[in-house]
Amino acid sequence: MEAEHDDVDEAERGRMASLATNLGRGVRRGGERARAGVHAVADRIIANAPRIPVRDLKTLREQFPGLGPEELADKLVAGAAGGTATVGAGVGAAAMLPTPPAMPTELAAEIVGVASIEFKLIAELHEVYGVRAPGTVRQRAIAYLGCWAEERGIDVTQPASVNAALGVQMKRELRQQVLKRSFRNMPVLTPFMIGAAVGAAMNRRDTKKLARKVRKDLRAEQIPWNLPLPLER
Question: Does residue 53 sit in helix, strand or coil?
């Protein structure tokens, strides 16, 4: 009987070891898929950025006549906050459906949508404050993405900061920001917890918070409108 009991224990230990091994493999595969998804979303944001239309200062002043820099910046922030709120409301509402759609797809779409709106806001705030990033359209796009990832305004007086924004470091920081935003938005995708109203409020709040940080940095570098803009390269 004792030998039979030992055999049972040995079989049970074998099953538990097999289960642990399979579980570990599953966790690793899940982590790998998550990392691949974050990288894919980050790469999509990077690819989209140069294609997003950014209004220059002349166009903005023509579209919003009679406004000073701060008033114009307020208008841009309000519009962007409304846009990201709409995106958040859509995902929040989807999470409350009786049969929710594929949430990872919805989450990726929200991150890309919010990033596009906030990227445009950051680029146009740089125009409003006269602190346009140097370089070509693509170089400026990558620089502004660095601002989005780090939640700051670019310091064009420090070439090193601009060059760093164009390299591997920026991509790493951007991917980290995408991951952080993924976790931030996970509650929006949880049925029965929150829906459209809270999804909208979260995005509106976070976009305004981002704008406050960027505007604070840009005010320190601001070029008054009565002075010429830096020459475009």
Answer: coil
Q: What angle do CA 50, 53, 59 make, to 5 degrees?
A: 135
Counting every residue written for the chain, the total comes to 233
- Joined together, the tokens standing for residue 180 give 């952080």
What is the rounded distance in angstroms from the CA atom of residue 97 to the CA atom of residue 27? Answer: 28
Alpha-carbon distance 228 to 144, whole Å?
A: 21
Domain boundaries, the chain: 34-155+188-221
214 CB burial (10 A radius; 0-12, 13-18, 19+): buried
Q: What's the pTM?
A: 0.72
For residue 174, count CB atoms less than 10 angstroms from its CB and return exposed for 0-12, middle for 13-18, buried for 19 or more.
buried
pLDDT, mean over the chain: 74
CB neighbour class for 201 (10 Å; exposed up to 12, middle 13-18, buried from 19): middle
